[in-house]
Amino acid sequence: MSGSKKKKVRVLDLLRDPLGPGRRARRRGFSQDFLSGRHPPEPEIALADLKRIVFFNHFHNGDIHLARGIVREIIRPLIGVTFLYSHGCPVDLLADMPSIGHDPVLFKNLRNNRPYLVDRSSGTAFINTWIGCLGTQTVEATGGCNILLIRDILAASVRRAVGLALPPVTECMPDPDFSRFHIQSIDAFMEKDSRVKILISNGKVLSQQSTDFDFAPFILALAEKFPRILFIPSNATDLKRSNIVHSADIIQKHGPDLNENGYLSTFCSAIIGRSSGSYSFSIHRRNLQSRKIFLSFCHCPLEASLGFDEPVFKSRCSFIATNDFRPAFMLRRMSRVVELATADGPCTDATVETAHSSATPA
C-alpha cells in the first residue's frame, strides 16, 4: 500500500516468537477457557469405554515428581483400566506405583503442547503431565512452576477426556511410598550417625530455575564453620572431610537415586539447593508436615516451594528463596539457615533478614 511503512521483522523476533502475536493471544484465550471449567464439555470417552490411560512427559524428573500425587489420584478410582507412563527419565522413578507401566519412546510421537489427546477407537486417553503444555505465558502468569497450576491443568484434562473429577489439591501432594525404593543403606547409616544433618542439593540445573554456580566452596566453608554438623551433597564433589558424606555413599544404589535422596532428606534438618533435582524430590508430604527448612537460590520465589507454602496445605516446614547470587551473601544465608535449623522456633525470610542486618559481613 502506497504511503504506508512496512514494519521490519527482525530474525530475533521470529526466534523468540515463531507463532506471532495473533497466535499468542489465541493461545492465552484457549488456556483461560481450558482451565476455567465454567462450561465443561461432554467427556470425549465415557468412563465405561475407557480402556487405557497413557501419561506422558517430554521433560525432566522434577516434572514427573510434581505431578505424581495427581497421577495417583487419577488412577485410584479406575478399575480395569491399563496405565502407562511414557517419559525419558529413569524407569524406576515411579517404582512405588507398580500398576503403571513405563514406555521410554511413545512420548516422542506426541506433541508436548497438547494437554490431552483421545483415541476413541482404542479407548485410550493420553494425558500430558508437563506444566508448560498450555504455554510459558500460563506458567509465568501463575508465578512459576507450582502444584496449583499443574493440578488445575490435569483436572481439566481428565474432566474433558474421560469425565473424571479430581479431589482437592491437598489430596494431590507428592507422597512416595519410600519402602519401594533402595532405602536399606540409608536406614543403616542413620542408626549409626546421630549428628544433625543438612542436605545440599548440588546437581546441575536443567530447566533454568537458577544459576549453575559451584556449590563445593560453600559446602567446604560450612563444614569448617560447623564441624559437628554432617553435610550431605547430593552429587559428587572432591571434598573430603569427616563431616561431609555424599548421599551416593550413604544410599549405595549405584544408579539414579532422586527418590532415595528424597527419603534421606527426611533425616535432615534443612535442605539447601536450587529448586531442582534432590531439592525438588525432598518436597513431599512427609517433609511438608515436619519442621524443616528449605533454602533455595532460584530466579522465581514461588519455585522454592513449588506452591506448597500456600495456606491450604498447612505445611509445617519453612521455605526461603533468594535470587541474590553474591557469594558472600549466599554463604551468610546458608550459615544462618544451618544455625536456625538446629534451633527452636519457626524460620522465615524475616527471621533470616533480621539476622543478616546485625551480622558481620563475610
Mind sketching the topology for me?
Blueprint: H1 11-16, H2 20-36, E1 52-56, H3 61-75, E2 82-86, E3 100-103, E4 116-119, E5 124-128, H4 136-141, H5 147-162, H6 184-192, E6 197-200, H7 216-225, E7 230-233, H8 247-251, H9 258-264, E8 270-273, H10 278-281, H11 285-288, E9 293-297, E10 318-322, H12 327-341, H13 349-357
Parallel strand pairs: 1-2, 1-5, 2-3, 6-7, 6-8, 8-9, 9-10
Antiparallel strand pairs: 4-5
Helix pairs in contact: 3-5, 7-12
Explain what the structure shows.
The protein is 34% helix and 12% strand. With 362 residues, it is of the alpha/beta class. The N terminus and C terminus are likely disordered.
Question: Summarize this, please?
Answer:
With 362 residues, this protein is α/β, with parallel strands linked by helices. The chain has helices at 11-16, 20-36, 61-75, 136-141, 147-162, 184-192, 216-225, 247-251, 258-264, 278-281, 285-288, 327-341, 349-357, and strands spanning 52-56, 82-86, 100-103, 116-119, 124-128, 197-200, 230-233, 270-273, 293-297, 318-322.
